[in-house]
Amino acid sequence: MTAAIFPRTPLLTGDDVANKRLEIRDYFHATFDRYELLFETLATTAAFYKKPIPLRHPLIFYYGHTATFFANKLVLAGLLSMRIHPRFESMFAVGVDEMSWDDLNDAHYDWPPVEDVRAYRQQVRAAVDAVIAEMPLTLPIAWEDPAWVVLMGIEHERIHLETSSVLIRQHGLSFVHPHPAWEPWRECGDAPQNDLVDILAGEVRLGKTDASYGWDNEYGQHVAQVADFQASRFLVSNGEFLEFVQAGGYADDAWWDAEGLAWKSYARTTHPTFWIADGESWRLRLMLEEVSMPWNWPVEVNCLEAAAFCAWKAARTGMPVRLPSENEWLRLYEHAGVNELTADRAVANLHLDYAASSCPVDYFRHGDLYDVVGNVWQWTQTPIYPFDGFRVHPLYDDFTTPTFDGRHNLFKGGSWISAGNESRKSARYAFRRHFFQHAGFRYVVGQPLSSSETSMPASAYYETDKMLSEYAEFHYGDSHFGVENFPKALADLAIRVIGKRPARHALDLGCAAGRSSFELARHFDQVTGIDFSARFINLGVQMGGSATEPGRLRYTFAEEGELVSYHERSLAELGLEQTRNKVAFFQGDACNLKPHFTGYDLILAANLIDRLYSPSKFLDSVHERLNLGGLLIIATPCTWLEEHTPRAEWVGGFKKDGENFTTLDGLKARLGGHFRLIEGPLDVPFVLRETKRKFQHTLSEVTVWERLE
Predict the structure, then answer these.
(1) String of b and e for 647-684 (b: at least 16 CB within 10 Å)?
(2) How far, rounded to the nearest angstrom, does the alpha carbon of residue 155 sit from its chain's CA centroid?
């Protein structure tokens, strides 16, 4: 068993800068050394170049990748003035995400000799060492500090310590050999009889609060109420899972959902991937050897297999057996009173404190449960999603965002090799449900989970459509060049001119993403937002949220070329949270509104009339929608284009009787019978951001009309 204690994650706090610098340096070298030791388990040079599985790169890539990550991030952060090895820092930069089990990557790479990569790693070691010695360091270490980037590289290598060990485990036995630093657990026996432990209802709060390094998905806030449930005392052991195998669980399609059936059909598997049939008995593949099946060790399966087992056990027992949610796992953690991060040897099979394998499921007791943390990761039913307040780190903007797709489930608790950030309660790692890791599961018995716990909430997705993202940014994003947010400016103008007039009900016609609707609701009792585009309306609906849960918009925005930035906006950060229950959005045609949209004290038509197919139909009937004395505000950039409005329907912007006939002239002609102009024309500017360096600056002509009859 491992003798030395693998250094724990340094805290970001402290009062001794010199000691903290040494602590980070020791943490770096311990991690770099341990990763080197992992690749010493490869028995031949050929082992570096033969793919363990078709869906991933050969191990030579992963040997160079973690060093390249350090170099690339330090250059990006300005902590290295020049690249160490440009070719390697391109070749080893991007791995293969096993996004689908049948997506084979057959690209040919001219991989370098192992000796060259080993020498490169030592160059990177020296460079990082110098950065640690010379970088500015203040305490506590913050997200923007140079030390954060160094810790990012260390924690990234610790992740690959785990993922690379899985690939080595999937390699042929002829490619690996035993190593004294990677001795497995040797004790095994019969599987214990599993039973259920009562877990009381309670509130859980997620969102990182401790003073250690964290990945982007850990930050923000999430609060949930968890009902009573029961949890299996032990992780599901090989012995317990054998019952499912012997019952024909892999052959019976009844226990598998559609995704599981597709994977099972492709994989043509009849048992867990690390099990090896040996006549009438079984053996287990560990990282570096095969052993007689340790029936009291946890079974290691993917999420699809774990879910199928639960479906089978539910039918067999008549109880609602299923995988836990992330919220329920946290209740298990709190129930057990675990402290997973200690300076001493852990009271769990964690941090590489004991052995390079799993161990019996009844060895590490945590209250009346076992292995709440450690041994193997525990699959949950919860797809990873961003917490309220989530934001990406600018130096690693694609760490989590590609997994916000409903296809990556969280697993919790860490495995025997999980060290550093992975070992923390706050850690949130997610993989495709067919993915193999050092992962198993425990089951729970409880009421069905809500859809929000088993599927991605709509508000968690990032809008990637260019036009919708531009409108989301235009309405809810940053201002530019000192120009006030346009929807807000129009709402402010409307509230000013309405003065002491009645302010019961306002109509925001052509509301697009809805910012003006929420802004008007600061003054009006009710606001109706109507737009022809259901896609625009959906942005406003998402922003408004539900009666019980505030909403938010998440979207990507083009920076340059294929590069994007990630944004999250909420009403609360705009000071509009109190307005969301006063706004209702509808799809509608401004030229042919339904009769019940009437009785308004104010109608705002922002940048609308020069996009209508028949603005005359709107202008000739809009008075019918307004109360007497009500106000109509029209804003238009007067951009008349035949692609939107037939030439014959233009309100202005042409010669009439040989003279210029402007949009304002046309409005006076159309509205004069029922309205009087009380303010304007005013030029209200707005700026549309297209990319990081391309903006449109436009003036909208605003007029305010009072209904007379």
Answers:
(1) eebbbbbeeeeeeebbbbebbbebbeebbeeeebbeeb
(2) 19
CA 395 to chain centre: 16
List of residues 6+ apart from 492 with CB closer than 8 A: 519
Q: Which helix (H) or strand (E) holds 51?
A: none
- Residue 545, both tokens: 């949220």
Helix (H, G, I), strand (E, B) or coil at 503: coil
**Largest Cα span, the chain:** 100
Tokens read off for 551: 């909403």
What CA–CA distance (Å, rounded) separates 2 from 353? 6
Structural domains of the chain ordered from first start? 17-181 (1.20.120.450), 196-460 (3.90.1580.10), 466-707 (3.40.50.150)
DSSP label of 396 = B
- Please tell me the predicted confidence (pLDDT) of residue 339: 74
Contact 503, 525 (CB under 8 A): yes
List, for the chain, all residue ranges whose pLDDT scores fall below the cut of 70.
1-4, 96-108, 340-343, 459, 547-548
**Distance (Å, rounded) from C-alpha 77 to C-alpha 495?**
46
Q: Are 212 and 12 in contact (CB under 8 A)?
A: yes
Give the separation between CA 60 and CA 344, rounded to whole angstroms.
Answer: 34
Burial level of 113, CB count in 10 A (0-12/13-18/19+)? Answer: exposed
Pair of tokens at residue 107: 């690209």
Helix (H, G, I), strand (E, B) or coil at 515: helix
What pLDDT, on a 0 to 100 scale, did the predictor assign at position 2?
45
Confidence (pLDDT) at 104: 47
Which pLDDT does position 461 carry in this prediction?
A: 77
Q: How distant is the alpha carbon of residue 668 from its chain centre?
A: 51
Please list, in sequence order, all residues whose beta carbon lies within 8 angstroms of the beta carbon of residue 640, skipping any fewer than 6 positions away: 610, 650, 651, 652, 653, 654, 663
* Among 96, 37, 97, 92, CA closest to 68: 92
Please, what sign has the CA dihedral across residues 383, 389, 393, 398?
positive
Q: What is the pLDDT of residue 96?
A: 57
